[in-house]
Design goal:
There is one protein chain. The protein is mostly helical and 185 residues long. Helix 3 packs across helix 4 and helix 6 crosses helix 7. The longest helix has 25 residues.
């Protein structure tokens, strides 16, 4: 485990216990990591620094508002990474930038320099996805991971939009059940 994980997690746990100073420190530290993450990705796309700052603020707000959803038994940085990545994908959708223009291979850690342990997620998404039938797995991959719209996924797969939606819904339900089974001792 990377040392920064321990430090950030300790701040989050204290924050969840009501320590306002720890919460401020957590958000301040995360803002630096998030800023590096977004600037790096957006610079490769020819986007501006102000857009990175907007994304930092959106991610920090999502972390603040959703902090009650963090499971303290898990690593913090994968949770933060997921929020940061989804904020980036939302930004790309809003600004009509194709996800194919973004090297999402680089989006696997909040900041590579600061957190090499982000891939140590307790739940291995790739392994979980292999548990699903191919149609569900492909629908989730295209829409939820690759960032395609339902219409784009339907066109690519040759399925109807309704079929894509149903496969995503059923697949996510199956993944949720699998995760619940893994967490039950």
């Amino acid at each position: 485990m990377h040392p920064i994980e321990s430090e950030l997690k300790a701040l989050m746990v204290a924050s969840l216990a009501g320590d306002a100073r720890a919460h401020r420190d957590l958000l301040r530290k995360l803002s630096g990591y998030l800023r590096g993450y977004y600037r790096g990705r957006l610079t490769r796309m020819g986007r501006g620094v102000s857009e990175a700052e907007d994304l930092v603020q959106e991610a920090l707000m999502a972390i603040h508002v959703g902090r009650h959803t963090y499971d303290t038994a898990e690593l913090l940085t994968p949770w933060v990474h997921a929020i940061a990545r989804y904020k980036l994908l939302d930004f790309l959708r809003r600004t009509r930038v194709s996800a194919t223009n973004v090297a999402l291979d680089y989006a696997e850690e909040v900041v590579a320099v600061d957190d090499s342990a982000s891939t140590e997620s307790a739940l291995d998404l790739g392994r979980l996805l292999t548990m699903l039938p191919a149609r569900m797995r492909e629908a989730i991959q295209m829409v939820k991971i690759d960032g395609l719209s339902v219409a784009e996924a339907a066109t690519r797969s040759g399925a109807s939009e309704s079929a894509i939606k149903v496969n995503i819904h059923r697949g996510l339900k199956a993944l949720s059940a699998a995760i619940s089974r893994e967490r039950t001792p």
